[in-house]
Structure formats: structure tokens, C-alpha cells
Specification:
With 209 residues, this protein is an all-alpha fold. The chain is built from 8 helices and no strands. The longest helix is centred in the N-terminal third of the chain and has 39 residues.
Amino acid sequence: YRHSSEKEEVISLKLSHLDFALLSLLVSANLVGTLIGVIYYMSQLLSTSPLLWVFVPDCPLYTGLFAFLILLAIAGVKSDLFGFLVSVGLMKYGAWTLFVLAFYSNYFFSFATYIWLQSTILFILHIGMMLEGFILPFKKVTALQMVVVLAWFFINDFLDYFGPSVHPYLPQGNPLPATAFALLSTFAFTLLAAGFAKNNYRIHIRGLS
């Protein structure tokens, strides 16, 4: 019996190390992605009022917040509202990027220039970003939290498409599809994340969920 107990303790310790390694990998990958994203947005940031900077680099913002969220979880600090907001942001902007790359594929995947290679890498990375949203590092969602998250992302959408237009570069053409997708995704991913949390559908990683 003692031998069995010691074996279980060793297995538990190994799992703990694996969990920590996975969380460390997620933090590192997201911080690198955030840095690359900020560099990508640098010219747009420099031409935008500092008061609006938080609304410009959408994807880097939420990958950075996700890394911060993991560090907080490792330290034993968790917030359902913060986790909910970050999860929706990862899903929304990951999906929006995939949509834009696909919808404007004649531009982004043109073999006339090497932009197709960059676009292919971005497409793969943003699939990963969107999937990170389904880790759902929160337990429950209240009605007030849903209102706060919806309001935050609708403010983002307004500034992107109806205000100072701080959205990422879109090829010449009709911006309506990207606008419509952004607005619909705010509703869809807020409801999806809340529904998944309610039914406990999530990617489980010990230390986060």
C-alpha cells in the first residue's frame, strides 16, 4: 500500500511539472507573439493618438493579457471577469483575422509578392490564438459581466469602423464585410464563451481551469 501511495505521489508530481511546463510555454509563446504584433502595428501606433493606443493592436493586446492571466493564475490570483474578457478577445480577434485573410485572399495570398508567406504564417498563428480562447480560465459568468464585456467590445468596434478607424489595414474595397463580422462576432463569442463556461465545456489545463 505504501509503495502504491508513493507511486501516485510521483505521478502527481510529474503531472504538476508537465502543467507548469505547458503554462510556461504558453506564456513564452504569447509574449513573443505580442512583441512581434506590437512591432507590426508600430507605424499605425505612431500615427494614432496615444489615448487610442489600447484599441489599435487588438491581437497583440489579448495575447499579452492571456500571458498575464496565466502568470496571475500561477500566483493563485483569478478573476472571472478578466478571464471572460480575455477569452472573448482571443476568440473575436483571432476569428476576425482569419476571416479578413480569407475574404481578401486575392490580396493576402497573392503569389505576385511574398505577402502570401506572411499571410500563411499569420493564418496558422491566429488559429492557435482563437483556440486559446477556449481554455476559458474562469468558472462562471454573471449578467453584469456579460454587459461589461459586450460594452467593451462594442466600444472597440465603434472606434474601429465608425469613429477614428483604428482597425488594422484592409485592402482597397468594401470594408462592410469586415465590419459586419466584427459586430456579429462580439455577440457570438460573448455568448459562446458564457455558454461554454455555464456547461463546463473547456480545454482543461490544471492551474488555469
